[in-house]
Amino acid sequence: MGKGIGSIHLNEIQCTGFEKSIIDCKFNVENLGCNHEEDAGVRCNIPAMGFQNQLRLSGGRNPYEGRLEVLVERNGTLKWGTVCGENWGIVEAMVVCRQLGLGFANNAFQETWYWQGDINANTVVMSGVKCSGTEMALSHCRHHGENVACPPGAHHAAGVTCSETAPDLVLNAEIVQQTTYLEDRPMFLLQCAMEENCLASSAAQTSPTTGYRRLLRFSSQIHNNGQSDFRPKNGRHAWVWHDCHRHYHSMEVFTHYDLLSLNGTKVAEGHKASFCLEDTECDGEIQKNYECANFGEQGITLGCWDIYRHDIDCQWVDITDVPPGDYLFQIIINPNYEVAESDYSNNVMKCRTRYDGHRIWMYNCHIGGSYSEETENKFNHFRGLSNNLLPTQ
Asked: Which CATH number belongs to the domain containing residue 123 in this structure?
């Protein structure tokens, strides 16, 4: 493509694919040790004419929301039409907001009270949309093409609300690695956990007086590094009171804890089903805004973090039935995308785990869904410390 001219402003750029601008990616401005021999370039594909790269929102209360409409060509004529709302979700909405230059998705609607959402076969021009979240245009997502098929039960068109700001939750992987240990906990101390469904199904056959469960325990410290506060999807009217913990839980599914075999098969899972979100600590002079006590507002303030300590109920994975071996430990935050974030690629943490039946090692914990070749090579000759040596039964 040839050499550029003038000053070099960015070096070592690393993008996740979710950014709305190149300057939102990580880059190095201190060490610009490169020259125009290394100039970056791109070649873009022109989308097919069947689906025009043009979208608009209509019927909303402001320019940032509305029913999604797509411009398509049919029989030589351009027409605006709706998108089938079947399986429409926040990931698809993210792509729409990015394409429209409206920031990040707050909500993905299939129906609302403030615009006419009903659809019929004559208005739908796009269906079967399934995005990964990194696409720059809706037409780049998988869809049915011109073979539009919207099931009879999908009576509503797709819609979105966008915002210039969004939260971004990131787990502190180092804290998980440092705090992991094993505990053999007697069943008579796990009655609350049984009520909360925090144990493996085999716990129902464990003696409540003489039995025990082997728990993989750890702390999780979840930071909000985004651009706005993280708030639960449900309002107070939908929060659930938990007698064991004596407070309301605002999200039934906030984090998944799983132990996987090396081929990805789930061998044990955490049953921590409900969460109460609050500001445990904050950076600098940032004020805490959210607290679970006394039916307080719930959320995580920008610049703050919520800590679930290793010693609280259900902050564990029940590995009683797991044989010794090498495993992957995985934590996923906001797994169902119930709350919009600016970046979902950093919501997964993985660690390598070695369990010998008495001790547990947790090592190479990192954010992201895959391992680099360099990291994989370390697994065969790791030097880990045992986090916990169980006493002899």
From this structure: 3.10.250.10
